[in-house]
Each structure stands twice: as structure tokens, then as C-alpha cells.
Amino acid sequence: MPYIKERRQVPRYRLHISAKIHTSAFYINGTILDISVEGIRLESFLTIEPGTPVTVQFKIEKEIVFKGLVLWVINLRKRDLDLYQMGIKVDDMAVAGIKVIGFDIKNDLIQEILTALERKSQRPD
Prior knowledge:
The protein is 16% helix and 57% strand.
């Protein structure tokens, strides 16, 4: 997976995976565009206001859940459609219902996600 070089202290990695984003009031479908130990960038046809706590769920071999807070939202136009990109600050991670604690273990989880996606992309259809 491509690494995005920038001023951030932790690397983020580009990917493209479907996810469900839950708030206390509703959920929306979206796409994770990049991921790091500290955050996720999502894209969706609906927006969630900055400051809103969210749970992001997706599955790659196991159910993965990230919990965090929407920090920013950008409205984009693509092919005459309104799309929204959202930056999520990740506070908690869990795999198959087990909470992931500590930077190194969270980083291992990110690497495991990237490896699983790489394996999946190499499988014949």
C-alpha cells in the first residue's frame, strides 16, 4: 500500500475499503481512503458534523472497529455528485471484539490490515 509522505508523526496508508460509520443517532455507508494509528480519512455521500463521536466498522478477515471523533469535513463535487471527506481521530481500536491497546500493537493491526488487503487483491476472481 502506498505510504503518504508528509509532516505527520505517524505514517498513513492509502486504501479503498467499504465501511459503516455509526453515530449515536444513525449510520451511513462510506469508504476508508487512508488509515493510520491515529486516524482515518473517510468518504461518503452524507456528512457527519465535526465534533461527533463515531464508530467505524469494516471487515477484512475479522471484524475491525475504530472509535473516534470527526475532526473535519470537506465537501467535494465528483461527477455532479456531492461527496464528503471526513477526518476521524481514532481513540480506540478493536478486532473481533477485543480492544487493542498500545501504539505498537495498534501499528501491528494497521500492518495486518494492509497485508490482508494485499493478499485479497492478489487472489484470482
